[in-house]
Amino acid sequence: MIVGIIGIGLIGGSMAIDLKRRGYAEKVLGVEKEPVNAEAALRIGLVDEVVGVEDCIDRSDLIVISIPVGAAVKLLPQVLDRFKGKGYDDKIVIDTCSTKSQITRSVHYHPYRGRFVATHPMAGTEYSGPWAAEPNLFDGRAVIFANAEESDPKALAIVEGLYDTLNMRPTYMNADNHDVHVAYVSHISHVTSFALALTVLDKEKDEKHIFDLASGGFSSTVRLAKSSADMWVPILTQNRDNVLRVIDTYIDKMKLFREAIANYDEKAIAELICEANKIKKIIR
Questions:
Q1: Pair 44, 157: CB distance under 8 Å
Q2: Range of 222's domain?
Q3: If you ran DSSP here, which 8-state letter would residue 263 be given?
Q4: DSSP label at residue 147
Q5: CATH code at 119?
């Protein structure tokens, strides 16, 4: 299997490492528009070659689109267009984007829609670029297959095998439902982290020692604020309606805390914290 990865960053690069060393891919081709990143990917050994998009499509058995979702939505139809009339019926393309509704709609009526498998590996860190790639990133994590019934059974089975090689747990759901769920479990976490970082940075202008007092709790809460704007701007705009609903709910909960604290209402504060503690049943 020759695997082509378009976007050799954290996800694409980490996928390249494990697919190669675990024997799934005989060869990995990479597409990277940033020359510095492309050179790094070669030097680090993430890919065997850096090639152009069309060369990658023509030579690869399976193409992974691992770029920001705004660019991925535009690129996916172009990849499938290149399949037409060239004997590429066995080629497969997948994406690794954090939103699924727009990208699945973009090719819903495409004649080669069956060769596309929409996926979202639920793994990552706050870092980006080829230097962020690491082995075993996906082990034990979940991967979402969105609208799997729209993919050819053979293509789906091959991609299921890819994620099995990465030791991921498959979950199947509708693309719209996926976007609702990730707004709650992922997207709001990043928004609140960005907001907290802005709050602390604003305060730090007056209190220079604030970061000297920062503990591990602060670091773990705000670490997502290091995430790339290039990645998160299209995610938040594409999932706008769901994210706004979650933000509104979050603001309502913050108001409950503010009111209880303002009124010295220890009973109400304790009740809110105890209610929040129920998250331990979900996240251990």
A1: no
A2: 178-281
A3: T
A4: S
A5: 3.40.50.720
- Of all helices (H) and strands (E), which one includes residue 145? strand 142-146
Of 173, 200, 224, the residue at which a domain comes to its end is 173
Give the pLDDT confidence of 134-169 residue by residue, as tens digits. 999 999 999 999 999 999 999 999 999 999 999 999
CA distance between the termini of the chain: 38
With a CB cutoff of 8 Å and minimum separation 6, the contacts of 102 are: 69, 73, 238
Question: Where does a domain end: 173, 198, 229?
Answer: 173
Q: What is the pLDDT of residues 203-217, one digit of tens each?
A: 776 666 666 666 666
- What's the CATH number where 193 sits? 1.10.3660.10
Contact criterion met (CB below 8 Å) for 147 and 110: no
Length of the chain: 284
Q: How many domains does the chain have?
A: 2
DSSP H helices in the chain: 10-21, 35-44, 53-59, 69-83, 101-105, 153-165, 175-182, 188-204, 216-222, 229-238, 240-262, 266-276
Same domain, 165 and 141: yes
Please indicate, yes or no, whether residues 158 and 95 belong to a single structural domain of this protein: yes
CA 233 to CA 96: how far, in whole Å?
16
What is the C-alpha to C-alpha distance for residues 253 and 230, in angstroms, rounded to an integer? 29
pLDDT computed for residue 213 by the predictor: 65
Do 234 and 257 have their domain in common? yes
User: What is the spatial distance between Cα 108 and Cα 173, in angstroms, rounded to a whole number?
Assistant: 16
